[in-house]
Structure formats: C-alpha cells, structure tokens
Design brief:
With about 240 residues, this protein is α/β, with parallel strands linked by helices. The chain has ten helices and nine strands.
Length: about 240
C-alpha cells in the first residue's frame, strides 16, 4: 500500500516550481491540493541585471539562491544573445543541489554548495572558502508578486483548513509561510487543525512564529528530503513518527 494513501497534502509552492514535489507525493498515494501562495516573476527593470551579466569578470562570486533565479537569468542571457559560458569569468556558488543542478544543466560550473542549504550556511561557506574583503559579489534574485494572491490559495481558503479536510500543509520557504497566513488568516493558520511540514529550520521558525506546530522537518533541506520525512511521519506506526 502506498505510504501516503488517504493523506490530503497541500503544496503551497509557486506553480512554476511545484511539479517535482506534487509528482513525488502523488506517486506515493497522496491526494495533493495545489495552492500556490506566490507567483514567480522577473523584475520589471532588468537593465541592472543585463549590465552585471555583461561584466561578470568584475565579480569575484556570483551567488544563486534558488532555481527560479537560475531560470530567469538563463532566459535573459538567451534573449540578450549571451552565453551561459560567460560564468567562467566568475566563481559560482549555489545554495543547494537543485539550484546547482539547474546551473550544471546549462553548462555552468558550480564551485561551492554549502552543507546546509540555507542562506546562513552559504555565507559561512563563502567566508571559509575565500577572503571577501573588498570583493564584489553578484546576487541575482527574482521577484515575487505580492499584490494579489493566486487563485489556488483562494480556492483552498480557511474553511477547508478549519473543517479538518487537510492532513498537512507543506512549506518550502519563509516567504511562502507569510503569504499563506495572509491568505487564510492568522486564526486559521494557527488553529492546529492541520499538520505542518517545513523544508528547513528557517522556514520552520517562521511557521512557529505564526503559532503553527511543525510536525515534519527533514534532516536534508531538499524536496526529496521533505518527501522522505513525510513518508516517515505517516509510516511505521502512523502519525507522529516524523523527523522534527
């Protein structure tokens, strides 16, 4: 019997990046409710990015903190007639293996991936690897739309949560937690009527700050680690066996 059969799990990740998590959960038998709390959009003014990418040799490091940023930058490079091989002019760091894989698929050599896939670990790893005094570091970032909540979150609503029709809600970033609470309301978010799975300690701490109890927190801060932790939580003895 699939380990997540009969479990209704909400995926709050942006639609553009939710596919991997949704597929993995569905393959394990879960009923997945896709309720993205943010949309991923490139910045309206990309001229500063174009200038930076045309002068990559000026930067000692270029740091990528998400797959979304990688995709936006690569799309921009293509549109501007530039090659990803330009990144050979700088040293490249990625916050985690998925971000590094996205870069590697485009032929970009990633020199540094920290052991802990969070910003603090990346900063520590950079400081250990290199003396950054006086160094210029390029940190391209994508923008998240904050002016309107996507339809998926509206469709989920507070009622489904309060009625106990959801087993667990997954969070893969602190910003997603913030938008989720804005969408469903603080009372519903902290009601305790559903479980919470957070991809890492920073996201988990944000959820706890809103009064949520985090039942699932994987040892490896990746999508695969989150899925494994959910299986462990609901497997072998049932609910309550999760990693926290």
């Amino acid at each position: 019997m699939p380990p997540l059969r009969g479990r209704r799990i909400v995926v709050t990740r942006a639609r553009e990046q939710a596919g991997e998590l949704v597929r993995a959960l569905e393959e394990l038998g879960a009923e997945v409710v896709l309720a993205p709390t943010i949309r991923i959009e490139p910045l309206a003014d990309l001229e500063p990015l174009r200038r930076a990418l045309s002068r990559l040799a000026d930067y000692r490091w270029t740091v990528f903190t998400s797959q979304n940023t990688v995709h936006v930058v690569l799309e921009c490079l293509s549109a501007w007639g530039l090659s990803a091989h330009r990144f050979a002019q700088t040293r490249v760091a990625a916050i985690g293996p998925a971000t590094a894989d996205a870069l590697g698929a485009a032929g970009v050599r990633v020199e540094l991936v920290p052991a802990g896939y969070i910003a603090e670990s990346l900063v520590d790893a950079l400081a250990t690897r290199d003396s950054l005094g006086g160094a210029r570091v390029l940190l391209p970032r994508a923008a998240t739309a904050r002016d309107a909540l996507p339809e998926g979150l509206r469709a989920l609503g507070a009622q489904a949560l309060l009625a106990g029709r959801v087993d667990i809600v997954t969070f893969t970033a602190s910003s997603i937690v913030d938008h989720f609470v804005t969408g469903v309301g603080a009372d519903a978010a902290s009601s305790g009527r559903f479980g919470v799975a957070a991809i890492g300690p920073v996201t988990a701490e944000t959820a706890r700050g809103y009064g949520m109890t985090v039942q699932v927190e994987p040892a490896q801060y990746t999508t695969a680690g989150l899925v494994e932790a959910l299986v462990r939580y609901y497997g072998e003895g049932g609910k309550g066996k999760g990693e926290t």
